[in-house]
Amino acid sequence: MWQNVNGGDTDEMFDELFQKYGKVVYSDSDRKRPTAEADDDAESLSFAVALAKVANEVKAADIRVLFVKPLVYWTRFFIIVTAFSRPQVDAIGSRIRDIAEKQFNKNAAGDTKPNSWTLLDFGDVVVHIFLPQQRAFYNLEEFYGNATPIELPFDTQSPFRK
């Protein structure tokens, strides 16, 4: 039997909550159909590739898109890019925000000023813009090594990457 932090019985605590608020009931309509889930993934993939293309146009290097949905509960895709200066970080972030808002009607939560690691969170897609030293230090590609890499329609290989 589990004890809660106040030393009481956890079962009793849950009984009290159920009496006060009622039981949680799920219906079949609470779950998405598998095809709807796949449609959401496809829409998010399309969005992620569009943002990666924007980063490529602003000369970001070593652009990676990773399907991380099976590994994390809070997003579907990571975009990881390298910029070589803070002004370039700012330019990449600004262009990505503009395209996301104008073409996809999405706004990013996250950093608004360039740092050595700028994060733009669009919910289903999270963009990481790194300076080279921070990208190597945090090494998200290795940390999420089981993520599925997405092949992009442009060359993203950096001559500086090992």
- Please mark out the parts with pLDDT under 50 across 5 or more consecutive residues, or reply none: none
- Please give the share of residues in helix: 40-55%
Rounded to an integer in angstroms, the radius of gyration calculated over CA atoms is: 21 Å
Shape: elongated
Given the structure, what is the number of helices? 5
Q: Separation of termini?
A: 53 Å
Arithmetic mean of pLDDT: 83
Secondary structure layout:
Layout: H1 10-21, H2 34-57, E1 61-67, E2 77-82, H3 86-104, E3 109-110, E4 117-121, E5 125-130, H4 132-138, H5 140-143, E6 148-149
Parallel strand pairs: 2-5
Antiparallel strand pairs: 1-2, 1-6, 3-4, 4-5
Question: Could you walk me through the main structural features you see in this protein, from its secondary elements to its overall organization?
Answer:
The chain contains 5 helices and 6 strands. By secondary structure, it is an alpha+beta fold. It has a 6-stranded mixed β-sheet. Helix 2 crosses helix 3.
